[in-house]
Amino acid sequence: MADYKGPLDYIDVATRIVEFRNQYPTGSLQQLKYEVLEVGGKAFLAFTAAAYRTPDDERPGIGTAWEPIPGPTSFTRDSEMQNAETAAWGRAIVAALAADTKKGIASSEEVRNRQQTPAQRAQRDLADAVTAAGMVTKEFAQWAQTTRNVELNTAAVPVLVQLTREVQEKGTAIMSSAPDHAEAQQTLSDELGAQEAS
Questions:
Q1: Which of 48, 49, 74, 183 is the most buried (most CB within 10 A)?
Q2: What proportions of the chain, in percent to the nearest 5, are helix, strand and coil?
Q3: pTM
C-alpha cells in the first residue's frame, strides 16, 4: 500500500462505461431503484443500478451504492443522488464482468468522495460535538454555513471540541443540582462569565 496514490490507483466510472460499451454495444445501464435509508441515526441515499449486456439480458450485473445525506465533502454535498448513481453504475459494470478489476472494485470517484482533509474532519467533529451538546444556536448555524468550504485551523478544533464537551458536562451538573431552572441558568451564566474573565 506504500505506492497508494489516492483516486489515481482506481479506474473511473467513465472508463468503465467505455469498456462496457465496447464489449456490449447493445447494452444499457438502468436504474432499478433508489431509496433513503436511516442507519445508525444517519440518513443515506441508496441507489441500485443494472448493467444489461443485451436488451434481453436475464442476469444483468447489479450494483448498489449509497451516499450519506448530506454529503460529507465538497464533491458529494448537494449531489448525493448523482454520486450514488455513478458509483452504482460502476459497480454494476464490474458485476456484469465487463470491467477490469485489477485496480479494485471501487471507482476513483468513490475513493475521492470519501477523502476529507484534516480540517474538514475537524470541522465535522466540532459540529458533531456542538450538536450532541444541544448547543446549536443561530450563531453557530450561521458560522457553520459560512465556513462550509473554508479550511479551519486544525490545531484549534480539538480545543473547541473539548471546551464544548466541558460546557455540556458543567451545564448538566448545574442543571441537576439546582432546585429550579432559573437558578440553574443563572449559575451556568455566572460560571461561563467567570471563565471568560480569567
A1: 49
A2: 50, 15, 35
A3: 0.49
Nearest partner of 92 among 107, 79, 80, judged by Cα: 107
Closest CA to 157 of 116, 198, 187, 107: 116
**How far, in Å, CA of 152 to CA of 196, rounded?**
23
Instruction: Specify the 3-state DSSP secondary structure of 23.
Output: helix
pLDDT at 177 over 90: no
Q: What is the amino acid identity at position 189?
A: S
Using alpha carbons only, give the angle 51, 83, 42 rounded to the nearest 5 degrees. Answer: 115
52 is written with which cell numbers?
A: 444489461
* The three cell numbers locating residue 20: 462496457
Please report, as a single letter, which amino acid is at residue 192.
L
What's the CA gap between 27 and 127, in Å, rounded? 45
- Output the CA–CA distances (angstroms, integers) from residue 51 to 2, 26, 95, 145, in the order listed: 34, 11, 8, 39
3-state secondary structure of 145: helix
Give me the sign of the Cα torsion angle 145, 149, 155, 161: positive
Separation of alpha carbons 68 and 83, rounded Å: 10
